[in-house]
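queue> pop job 88
queue> type: inverse folding (structure -> sequence)
queue> payload:
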């Protein structure tokens, strides 16, 4: 019998939370197969079996464990049960699963999905009346939806109880705060209490960028196998502006100022477990395609809880996009120890005056929250104006200057 202990995941981390077991008690595991997922205050990581054998968990999901605690035992002397599939076989099966289609291309649902448990009569009513199964409170054994459950949902149109609760419920649920949520809470309070934070606003005409994307998105996807999004334009514009206004890219360390001659830009990503902020290193040295690929890679890892501690540390500046949730304006909070954060927002068509004429343009509000201890008003406003200029004239992103003026050496 061998012991699987909670591994060391960082110098400052002393405890972790057991999120879930990926293998069950008494189940056969192969060597290096993932058996559990743990969450520290900085990231989520997997634990692998050190040897093949039968698994015996020593902790429950949700338990808080210290580094070095015994997580599980594996009986490597046990005989492998007949029919136990190797991980490679499972992987092959997984690869054969169909890829999920975008909502706009997904077929119309004409029956209840297989993962929804309902009686035949209830399924028929749901399909006929187009009732959302998630809005139905199941009363059958094992969470099965019964006929009466569907009829009750139809009899109370516009009245929807909270998930798992009755109408007019006064229920209060208690849930343990995760390590990640504790860290988010602590860092946000620390940011508010230790920085002299102010926010300056501007707006950017996104018409030029949208025209570039419309004209080149197919060729870009064909050439680089990645979509041309907005984040690459913003990251590239910020990297140029950060080089011109170095205090926006600096830290305060005691009585010292730490200036960075590179742009490691953190990208805020919302996940079911909370906000994570992975870092894109040396944005100033990356191409647009490189940035887009990195954004997809980090966002996917964040949502799958696969980010490493290294990928979450060391950013010099942050970009957050509340526009994907519909935010029109916000005051983002500084991601300490950084000194500034740029907030993107929803693109909205608005009437604007251009050359004396009122025209409809695609506009976005920008917000720059900054630490006034290190960044003065002139620097913060000038930085944001420079970002605006670069975004409204995408050709400037090539090397930060107007091509014609550069040609004429002006």
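queue> result:
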């Amino acid at each position: 019998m061998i012991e699987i202990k909670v591994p060391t995941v960082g110098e400052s981390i002393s405890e972790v939370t057991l999120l879930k077991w990926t293998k069950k008690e008494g189940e056969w595991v192969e060597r290096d197969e993932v058996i559990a997922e743990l969450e520290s205050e900085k990231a989520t990581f997997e634990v692998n079996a050190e040897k093949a054998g039968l698994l015996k968990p020593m902790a429950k999901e949700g338990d808080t464990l210290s580094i070095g605690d015994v997580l599980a035992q594996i009986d490597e002397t046990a005989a492998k049960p007949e029919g136990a599939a190797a991980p490679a076989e499972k992987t092959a099966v997984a690869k054969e699963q169909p890829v999920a289609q975008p909502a706009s291309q997904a077929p119309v649902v004409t029956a209840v999905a297989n993962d929804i448990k309902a009686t035949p009569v209830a399924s028929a009513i749901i399909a006929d009346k187009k009732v959302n199964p998630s809005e139905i409170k199941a009363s059958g054994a094992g969470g099965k939806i019964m006929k009466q459950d569907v009829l009750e949902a139809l009899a109370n149109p516009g009245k929807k109880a909270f998930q798992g609760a009755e109408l007019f419920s006064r229920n209060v649920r208690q849930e343990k705060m995760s390590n990640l949520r504790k860290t988010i809470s602590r860092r946000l309070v620390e940011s508010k209490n230790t920085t002299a934070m102010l926010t300056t606003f501007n707006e950017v005409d996104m018409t030029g960028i949208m025209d570039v994307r419309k004209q080149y998105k197919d060729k870009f996807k064909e050439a680089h196998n990645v979509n041309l999004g907005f984040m690459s334009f913003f990251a590239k514009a910020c990297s140029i502006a950060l080089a011109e206004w170095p205090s926006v890219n600096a830290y305060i360390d005691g009585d010292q100022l730490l200036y960075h001659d590179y742009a490691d830009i953190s990208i805020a990503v919302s996940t079911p477990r909370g906000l994570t902020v992975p870092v894109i290193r040396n944005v100033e040295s990356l191409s647009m395609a490189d940035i887009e690929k990195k954004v997809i890679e980090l966002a996917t890892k964040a949502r799958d809880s696969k980010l490493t501690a290294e990928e979450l540390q060391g950013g010099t500046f942050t970009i957050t996009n509340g526009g994907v949730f519909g935010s029109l304006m916000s005051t983002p909070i500084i991601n300490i120890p950084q000194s500034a954060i740029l907030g993107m927002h929803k693109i909205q068509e608005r009437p604007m005056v251009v050359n004396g004429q009122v025209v409809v343009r695609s506009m976005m509000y920008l917000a720059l929250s900054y630490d006034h201890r290190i960044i003065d008003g002139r620097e913060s406003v000038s930085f944001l104006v420079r970002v605006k200029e670069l975004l409204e004239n995408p050709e400037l992103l090539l090397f930060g200057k107007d091509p014609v003026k550069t040609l004429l050496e002006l």
